[in-house]
Amino acid sequence: MIRGRTRKEQLKMAEEFGFVDPPNAGGGCLLTDPRFAIRAKDLFRHKETPTTNDIDLLKIGRHFRFDDTTKLIVGRNKDENEMLKALALPGDTLFETKDHMGPISLLRGDDSQNNLKVSSDITFRYSDAPKGSTGTMMIQKNDTHSEIPAGAISEQDYLKFMI
Q1: What number of other Cβ atoms are within 10 A of residue 126's Cβ?
Q2: Exposed, middle or buried by CB within 10 Å (0-12, 13-18, 19+), for 29?
Q3: Each residue of 90-145: pLDDT tens digit?
Q4: Which of the 8 DSSP states describes residue 151?
Q5: From CA 29, how far away is CA 100, in angstroms rounded?
Q6: I want to staple 93 with a disulfide (CB 3.0 to 4.6 A). Which of 60, 104, 132, 141 is the partner?
């Protein structure tokens, strides 16, 4: 076990494993971030062999777990929205409000009618739509586009899914 603030042991170990020019220390480990650590535990609890794409998704957005195989990630800003679009895989479903500024969300897993509705309502809740209003959610899965009505889900109803 390596202890202390010095990197001597790390550098010695890197040399033993053949690393010629190990990178400089980059700050803290993401696992020390409590929110990231909770998300990582959730991922490893529900997926036997996570991909780098799964790990990249842990770094962004608000995360919601619907069941063992289904998860929703809601972007918090324009950059995260773009990252969600870039990280979407074939079979993932993307959500975006039609009439209001707001997040893009990515649903990975079971896209049942219930999960589509809950995902739409959670996404709508984080939009700039006036409180208590309803709107239209644009949904994209692969090359298929559709729209469904959406309204803000109650805090009590969405918090039970939040990771």
Answers
A1: 18
A2: exposed
A3: 999 999 999 999 999 999 999 999 999 999 999 999 999 999 999 999 999 999 99
A4: E
A5: 37
A6: 141
Q: Are 72 and 106 spatial neighbours (Cβ–Cβ below 8 Å)?
A: yes
Name the H helices within the chain: 8-16, 34-46, 52-58, 78-87, 113-125, 155-159
Give the Cα separation of 113 and 26 in Å (integer).
43
Q: Which pLDDT does position 152 carry in this prediction?
A: 85
The residue to which tokens 């994209």 are assigned: 140
* Confidence (pLDDT) at 44: 95
According to DSSP, the β-strands at 104-108 and 144-151 are unpaired
3-state secondary structure of 152: coil
**Which residue type sits at 153?**
I
